[in-house]
């Protein structure tokens, strides 16, 4: 069963779901989020399944996403997650039709210092493992914020990203105003935040909002291949470097403090992974871009 330490309102509104991340079987949480573990690749695929509303997120879906990411982060068999939406769209943001039926106060949304559940679900979590967004179609408003939560964004040529909530008076409260300036710079971030204009795939790549652009219809496969590439590396070292990079951008008090943190966290990895890696290299492994003796290039080639 899912761990019972979820916050009260989350637990009261969710059915219990068997924790089978390592089984490789699909299951549906609350009917709107599907999780599949590719056990042979150590990749977890998390899918929003609300195609009739372009995968807009309502409160039950937000809670399901939160739970899926918490369980991914705790599962030792899953090294990298891929987030995507079914039916040709990533996510059109928060479900405004559902919100319009409320009085604006009954959705259980609490500030970050009270709860780590965001309006879109997992956007406040400090995950210890990488997440890749596989973006097709619309990734707008809160959907853009879900994509920004991810470490990397692979987008296909159909992708449209933007702060579309601007036209409806809905603020960015899932980290959009925090993450976007760090990713693409303040000037470009303000251009998107103030105007709410659409950004296509090629512009997203140019400004650093996207990391890869792939042909339409291939984004999920490309993101999974990229995730599998990352999943095969020595994990403690990779996660330590990832944590140090995030700390240097969002948390550090100074350059010197960031360097010290990088050193003291990195030095812990040397005995466990660096020395074995160096010995493998000395024996000829990993030369010329090879990832192992039996594998030449990463399958994604991204």
UniProtKB/TrEMBL annotation:
A Pfam family annotated for this chain is ECH_1
What's the protein here called?
A: Carnitinyl-CoA dehydratase
Q: Which GO terms describe its molecular function?
A: catalytic activity
Please name the Gene3D superfamilies in this protein's record.
1.10.287.2460, 2-enoyl-CoA Hydratase, Chain A, domain 1 (3.90.226.10)
Segments of skewed composition (Basic and acidic residues):
290-302
User: In which organism is this protein found?
Assistant: Mizuhopecten yessoensis
State the residue spans of region: Disordered.
280-302
Family designation: Belongs to the enoyl-CoA hydratase/isomerase family.
């Amino acid at each position: 069963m899912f761990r019972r330490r979820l916050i009260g309102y989350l637990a009261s509104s969710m059915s219990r779901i068997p924790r089978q991340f390592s089984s490789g079987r699909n299951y549906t949480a609350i009917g709107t989020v599907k999780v599949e573990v590719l056990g042979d690749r150590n990749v977890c695929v998390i899918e929003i399944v609300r195609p009739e509303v372009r995968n807009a997120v309502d409160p039950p879906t937000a809670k399901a996403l939160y739970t899926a990411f918490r369980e991914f982060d705790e599962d030792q068999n899953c090294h990298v997650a891929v987030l995507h939406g079914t039916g040709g769209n990533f996510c059109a943001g928060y479900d405004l039709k559902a919100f319009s039926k409320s009085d604006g106060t009954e959705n259980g949304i609490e500030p970050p210092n009270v709860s780590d559940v965001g309006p879109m679900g997992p956007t406040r979590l400090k995950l210890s493992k990488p997440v890749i967004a596989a973006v097709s179609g619309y990734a707008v408003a809160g959907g853009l914020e879900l994509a920004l939560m991810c470490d990397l964004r692979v987008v296909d040529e159909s992708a449209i990203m933007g702060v579309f909530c601007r036209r409806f008076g809905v603020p960015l409260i899932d980290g959009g105003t925090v993450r976007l300036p760090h990713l693409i710079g303040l000037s470009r971030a303000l251009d998107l935040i103030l105007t709410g204009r659409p950004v296509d795939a090629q512009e997203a790549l140019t400004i650093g909002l996207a990391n890869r652009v792939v042909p339409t219809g291939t984004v999920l496969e490309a993101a999974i291949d990229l995730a599998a590439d990352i999943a095969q590396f020595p994990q403690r070292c990779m996660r330590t470097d990832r944590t140090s990079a995030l700390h240097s951008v969002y948390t550090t008090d100074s350059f010197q403090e960031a360097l010290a943190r990088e050193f003291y966290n990195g030095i812990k990895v040397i005995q466990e992974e660096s020395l074995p890696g160096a010995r493998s290299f000395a024996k000829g492994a990993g030369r010329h871009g090879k990832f192992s003796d039996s594998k030449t290039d990463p399958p994604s080639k991204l």
